[in-house]
């Protein structure tokens, strides 16, 4: 059974920084593309940043130059470094990963979400 667990959310003032982490655990054979998504109240869940197994990255226009996605394949962990945060970045942030459990898949997995609030 595969699980994704996020951490690192919280309350930060505008202009501040936060670092989110997402650890994958369980019976994992291989992890393909990983990504961060966010959902603000009353809005749909949108992609924030993606990173392939070859570490090619892609970002939503709204976060380019402020956020950095990275991964540590040895630790099965995904990161999102968020700088110069704005109130409009406030949302629940979700980790997503395409994972092949031993002998199966790949399948799409989601974390439980972590709240990020940017407010003075």
How would you describe this structure in keywords?
mainly beta; elongated; 120 residues; seven-stranded mixed β-sheet; single chain; 11 strands; four-stranded antiparallel β-sheet; 57% strand
Write up this protein.
The chain has strands spanning 3-7, 10-12, 18-25, 28-39, 46-51, 57-59, 67-72, 77-82, 91-101, 107-110, 114-118. With 120 residues, the protein is mainly β. Strands 2, 4, 5, 6, 9, 10 and 11 form a 7-stranded mixed β-sheet that branches. The protein has a 4-stranded antiparallel β-sheet with strand order 1-3-8-7, with no helix packed on it.
Rg value: 14 Å
Number of helical runs?
0
SSE ordering: EEEEEEEEEEE
Could you tell me how far the N terminus lies from the C terminus, measured between alpha carbons in angstroms?
A: 40 Å
Number of strands: 11
**Overall outline:** elongated
Mean pLDDT across the residues is 96
Instruction: Indicate the low-confidence ranges by residue numbers.
Output: none
Mind describing the biggest β-sheet? Answer: 7 strands, mixed
The proportion of residues forming helix, as a percent range, comes to under 10%
**Percentage of β-strand residues:** over 45%
Task: Output the structural class.
Answer: mainly beta
Write the layout of secondary structure elements.
Blueprint: E1 3-7, E2 10-12, E3 18-25, E4 28-39, E5 46-51, E6 57-59, E7 67-72, E8 77-82, E9 91-101, E10 107-110, E11 114-118
Parallel strand pairs: 2-11
Antiparallel strand pairs: 1-3, 3-8, 4-5, 4-9, 5-6, 7-8, 9-10, 9-11
């Amino acid at each position: 059974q595969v699980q994704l667990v996020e951490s690192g959310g919280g309350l930060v003032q505008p202009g501040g920084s936060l670092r989110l982490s997402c650890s994958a655990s369980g019976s994992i054979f291989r992890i393909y593309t990983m990504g961060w998504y966010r959902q603000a109240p009353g809005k749909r869940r949108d992609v924030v940043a993606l990173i392939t197994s070859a570490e090619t990255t892609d970002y939503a226009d709204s976060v380019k130059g402020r956020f950095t996605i990275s991964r540590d394949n040895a630790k099965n962990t995904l990161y999102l470094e968020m700088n110069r945060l704005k109130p409009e970045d406030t949302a629940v942030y979700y980790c997503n990963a395409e994972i092949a459990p031993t002998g199966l898949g790949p399948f799409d997995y989601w974390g439980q979400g972590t709240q990020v609030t940017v407010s003075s």
